[in-house]
Amino acid sequence: MNHAFPAGFLWGAATAAHQIEGGNDNCDTWAEEWAEGSPYADKSGDAIAHYRLFRDDIALLASLGLKAYRFSIEWARVEPREGEFNPEALAHYRAVVDACVEHGLEPLVTLHHFTSPKWLMALGGWKGERTPQLFARYVERVMPALGPAVKRVVTLNECNIGVLLQSMFASLGFVPPIGVDVKSWRAPGWRESAAKACGTDVATYCAFQMAGDERGVATISASHVAAREVIRRVAPGVQVGLSLALSQPHVAPGGEQQAAKMWHGNFRQWLPAIQGDDFFGLQNYTREIYGPEGQIASPEGAETTGMRYEFAPQAVASVARRVAHELKLPILISENGYCGDDDARRVDFIGQALAGLHAAIADGVPIIGYAYWTAFDNFEWVFGYQPRFGLIAVDRSTQQRAPKPSAHFLGDIARHNALPDGVTTHPQPGSSQDLAMDHRYIPPMPEPGVVFTNVRIFDGSGSPPFAAELRVDGRRITAIGNSVSHGNARVIDGRGGMLMPGLTEAHAHLTWPTSVEKFVPGMSLPPEELTLTAARNARILLDHGFTSAYSAGALGKRIEPALKDMIDSGGMPGPRLIASSVEREPPMEGTLLDPGKVDEHGAGPANVAAFVKGCKDIGAKAVKFLISGESALKPGASLELLYTEEELMAAGAAAREHDLWLTGHAHAAEAVKLGLKAGFRVLYHCTYADEEALDMLEAARDTVFVAPSIGIVQATLDATPPPHFDMTHMKQDAAIVLETQKKLVPELRRRGVRLLPGGDYGFPFNPNGRNARDLELWVQHFGYTPAEALHAATALGGQIMGMGDELGQLKEGFLADLLLVDGDPTENVAILQNKHHLKAIMKDGRFHKSPN
Ligand code: BGC
Prior knowledge:
Layout: E1 10-14, H1 17-20, H2 28-34, H3 50-64, E2 68-72, H4 75-78, H5 87-102, E3 106-110, H6 118-122, H7 131-146, E4 152-154, H8 161-172, H9 182-186, H10 189-197, H11 214-234, E5 239-241, E6 243-245, E7 248-251, H12 256-266, H13 271-274, E8 280-284, E9 287-291, E10 294-296, H14 315-326, E11 331-336, H15 343-362, E12 367-373, E13 392-395, E14 400-403, H16 405-416, H17 433-440, E15 449-457, E16 466-473, E17 476-481, E18 489-501, E19 503-508, H18 527-543, E20 546-551, H19 559-568, E21 576-578, H20 605-617, E22 622-626, H21 645-657, E23 661-666, H22 669-677, E24 682-685, H23 691-699, E25 705-707, H24 710-718, H25 728-750, E26 754-755, H26 773-782, H27 786-800, E27 818-821, E28 838-843, E29 846-849
Parallel strand pairs: 1-2, 1-12, 2-3, 3-4, 4-5, 6-8, 7-9, 8-11, 11-12, 15-18, 19-20, 20-21, 22-23, 23-24, 24-25, 25-26
Antiparallel strand pairs: 9-10, 13-14, 15-16, 16-17, 18-27, 27-28, 28-29
C-alpha cells in the first residue's frame, strides 16, 4: 500500500483565540463566563497565555514537524469599540503570521471563531441588520494588516453551530449552556446578566452560537459573502472559505428523512453562501445515527469520548466523501480531534481518521489538508478546562507545555507526508450495512427551483443590465450567470425581457381609499370597508410590481399590523410591509384630512412617549408624526410645527427603547431639523430645508432616508376636479412645491442622502396602483436617468425596509423579489406604469403573477 499523501498536503493543528490567548475580556463569551449564575464550568481567565507565548508555541509546533498552524483573529481585540481599530492588536496578529513564516508553518487564518465584540451584541449580534457590513469592515482592516504570507482564510468558524445546537438541545429536551431558541435563551437570569454586561438586553443579544434560525443563518451567510467580497478586493489571490461542523449522518432503518433534514440544516442550506468560495472547511468529531423519529443513541457498548459522543474516527472520511459529492471544491479538514486523557486513543483516532482520508483521496476526493483540533489543551467553552483535546498538555499554573505522544505521531506523519505502516481504518461499530448505507443515502428531492433564461438583468445596484440566467431556490436567488444549473427547476423563457428587483413604495398609504380599481370620493369609509380596502390596496400594489411598501401612516390603529400579519402568513397577497399605526384620526364624512389634528395621543412629552409605546404594543414598526402641517390641505400649514422639541425628543427616546422607527412629515426647515435631532429614520418632503437642514441631512445620510413624495404634487397639478371641488389653492401650493423640489432633490442627492420614490398615492386624484409613476417623475423633474430612479426604488428600497443585505437587488443569496418586464425600463421607465408589461411578479421566491 502506498501511504503517501499528495505533495503539499497541509499538516497542521488548530486553535481559536478565546480558547488559548487569555484576558479576552471585551467579548461576549467573557461576559457569559462572568454572568451571574453562569453555567460555564470555568472562566477562561489567562487561558494558556498564548497571546504572550505565541512565539514559543509556534516554534514548538514547527519542531514537531507540522507544516501549518490554524489560528483565529479576535475581533473584540482588533475593534474594541465600533469603528475603532486597535493598531497594537493588528500588529500582534501580524507578528503571529510572521512567526509562522519564520518557522516554516503556513498560517491558516480564521477571522471569526465564535466570540464577538460585546458592542456587536448591542446591535443585535448575529441577527443584527448591520452585522454583515460590520464584519466586512473588520475584515477589510484585518486582511491588509496580516500581510502577504496569508494564503488561505476561513471567514467564520462553524457557521452552523447555532443550527447544530438548536436541534441538539431541542432533541435532548434541556436548556443548553449556550444559546438555543429565544425561549430557552430567555429563561435563566444569567443570560440577562451577560446581555447587560454587553450593554444590551436578552431580546437583542444574539451570540454566534445562538444564530440558528432563518434570520441567523441569513445574517451569517451574508456576513461570509460580504467578507469574501472584501477579501477579493483588498487581498486578491487569497483563498477564502467558511467552515461547517458536520457529523456523519448515519442512517438507521427508516431514518432517511431525519438524516436528510439534519444534512440540509447543517450543510445544504449553506450552499448558496459557499458558491464562489475557493475551498471548504470541514470539521468533524463524530457520527450521529438517525432513526424515523430523529437522532438515536449509538449502538450499545459503543466507546464514547470525553465529550460523551461516539468515538468515530471513520466519520471524517465519510463526511468528506459526501461533501465532495455535492460540492466541487477542495476540502480542508479544518478540525478533527479526540477528547480524552488516554493519549493512546488519540493516536488511534488520528491514525484511523487519516487512513480513511487517505483512501478517500485515492478515490478522488480533493482533500488538501488536515488541521487536528487542537494544538494545546485549552478552554473548551462552557465545559471549561476539564475536557482535553490537545496534542500538547499545558500546566496552567506554570504555563509549561508538554507534547504528548500523539503530537509526535502527527508530527512524524507530517514530516514524511505519509502514514506509517500498519495504520488502517477500522469498520464502524454497528451492523455491517451501516457504512454501505452511507453511500445509498439519498437526500429528499428539494423543491423545484425556477430558472429564468433569455433575460437581461438589471440587478438594482446601478450597474448596466447584462445578459445572464438567474436561478431561484426556495425564497432566495441561488445563482446568476451564464451556466446556471437547470436541474430540478422550472425553466422560464423570458423572451428577451428584463429581470429586475421588485419595487419599493417608500410612502405608502394602504388605507387611503382610492385605487386604480375603485374611485372613492373623499377619504372616509366605515371601518369594515376601510379594512378591506387596505387589503385590496395591498394586493394592487403587488399587482403593479411593488413587492415592498414602507407605510407613511394609516387611518386606523391596528389595520396595518393586522394586514402585515395576514400577508406574511400567506393569508392574502400584498407587499412586504413596514406597518405603521394611526397617522391621525380618520376624517368625518364629507371632510378632508385635517392636517392639524394631532391630538389623538394628547400633548406633552409623556403622552407622546406613551403613544409611541402604544404603537409597539399593537405591533407597528413605524410611527408616523406630522412634524409640520400640510399647506395643500390648509394654507400655510407646511411652515407650522405641530410638535415641540421636547415632545419629539421624547418620541425619539421611546422609539429607541422599543425598537421602533420614526417617520416624519416635514416640510418646514425646522421640522426637518427637529426630526433629525430626535432620530427620525424617514423624513418625507423636506421641501423648505434651508442650508442648515441640508447640512444636517448630509451628516445623517447613513441613518436617514428621504422620500420627497412628488407623485401627489404632480397629481394635484394634473387633476381636473368636478365643479363643486375647488382645488385652486392646492394647485398653487403644488406648483411651489414642485419648483422647490426640483432644486432640492438634486442637491440632496449630490450630498449623498438616500432618496426614494414614493408618492402619497390613495387620494381620489392620485390612486393607489399608480405608484410607478413616481419613477417617471424623477426622470422628468429631478435629473435622474431611468436606471438611477430604478436603483432608488430597488436597492435603496431594500435598505429602507431594513433588509439592505438581502433585499432590493438581484444577487446570489438575496431574497427572490423580482419582476420580469417585457421591455426595457432602463430605456423607458414609464413602461412600468402599465401592469401588463409585468410578465412575472415574484415575492419571496413565490410567483404572485406567473408567466404564461
Ligand atoms: C470548535 C472548537 C471546539 C471544538 C471541540 C469545534 O466545534 O470549533 O472551538 O473547541 O469543536 O468541541
